[in-house]
Amino acid sequence: EDLFTNDKFDTLKGSTNQGAIDEAQAAVNKLPAGAEKDRLQDLVNKAKDLLKKKEEAEKEQADAKKKVEDLFTDNKFDTLKGSTNQAAVDEAQAAVNKLPAGAEKDRLQNLVNKAKDLLKKKEEAEKEQADAKKKVEDLFTDNKFDTLKGSTNQAAVDEAEAAVNKLPAGAEKDRLQDLVNKAKDLLKKKEEAEKEQADAKKKVEDLFTDNKFDTLKGSTNQAAVDEAQA
Question: What phi and psi values does residue 111 have, to the nearest 5 degrees?
Fold first, then answer.
């Protein structure tokens, strides 16, 4: 009877362990057959069952605690491990769901909720980084990053820069910003070259009366030819 908290015999004492039950069983075994032996044997069986359930519950709680806390890098619980993904969070949630209501279940559920939130933010950040990487690298013809695509214009460069601006400080943001700066410089040089070409084309073609280019305009003189040459 000392295995239990009271004479309802439905709750084990905190001190009741396998050793105590084995000792009680050995004492019952010594008794002569009869109603009292049967009653005590039933209580020992009940104690065995309650201890088994208690140990299973403790194991489930320890398992849930490990699965939840292992989502994080340390016991500050503010940073997820690199290996923490949706499957790991789901597994931790399932383990918490098995627990009986109580302070520990509430604590672990709060940590799972925190992990879900951090994972969502991490995935959003990874998506933004992948988006910025694509927009920046797509400005160039290849991964030498020394030639712009023909389609790269000021709008494309501005869009890439806006995507980089959203990123958190770090090596990848610095790398992408350097590429954006390079693209700006190449675009400026390209636009200057196109402007010079258009200017030269106009000056040369303006020496002639039409696009047969076989008759000079009356205004064409040496100075105009020299300017076109330059």
Answer: -70, -40
Query: What pairs with residue 140 in β-bridges?
Result: 148
Residue 83: band (very low, low, confident or very high) from pLDDT cuts 50, 70, 90:
very high
Neighbour tally for 174: CB within 10 Å: 12
Of the candidates 38, 42, 51, which has an alpha carbon nearest to the alpha carbon of residue 11?
Answer: 51
Q: Rounded CA gap, 189 and 12, in Å?
A: 84
In one-letter notation, the amino acid at residue 150 is G
Nearest to 183 by CA among 144, 227, 143, 148: 148
pTM above 0.85, yes or no: no
- CB of 100 closer than 8 Å to CB of 77: no
Pair 178, 117 in one domain:
no
Q: Tell me which residue range forms the domain holding 64.
A: 18-123
Distance CA 118, CA 52 (A): 37
For residues 110 and 87, what is the distance between their CA atoms, to the nearest angstrom?
Answer: 18
Residue 132 lies in a domain: no
Q: What integer best gives the mean pLDDT of the chain? A: 97
Domain-terminating residue out of 123, 149, 175 = 123
98, 60 contact by CB (below 8 A): yes
Domain count, the chain: 2
* Structural domain includes residue 9: no
Q: Is residue 1 part of a domain?
A: no
